[in-house]
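In the design runs reported in the main text, the only information available to the sequence generator was the tokenized backbone. The following block is the verbatim input for one such run; it is reproduced so that readers can re-run the procedure and compare outputs position by position.
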């Protein structure tokens, strides 16, 4: 996430030079693309951390440190 990012609530997922913007609420890809296997892993991770993603978004908008979210295990 970026401090000056636009709505809707979303995060950036990057893999091997590809990037996708994914909404937090619906997990829709709103821009870009990722390979299907990578996107599947992103969906799995985001589904487990949706509440944390919303909190990070709020902190970023308040220009507060965002911290880190655990990776997929």
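Verbatim output:
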């Amino acid at each position: 996430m970026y401090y000056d990012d636009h709505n809707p609530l979303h995060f950036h997922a990057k893999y091997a030079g590809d990037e996708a913007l994914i909404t937090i609420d619906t997990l829709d890809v709103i821009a870009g693309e990722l390979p299907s296997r990578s996107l599947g892993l992103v969906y799995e991770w985001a589904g487990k951390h949706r509440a944390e993603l919303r909190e990070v978004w709020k902190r970023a908008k308040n220009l507060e440190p965002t911290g880190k979210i655990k990776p997929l295990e």
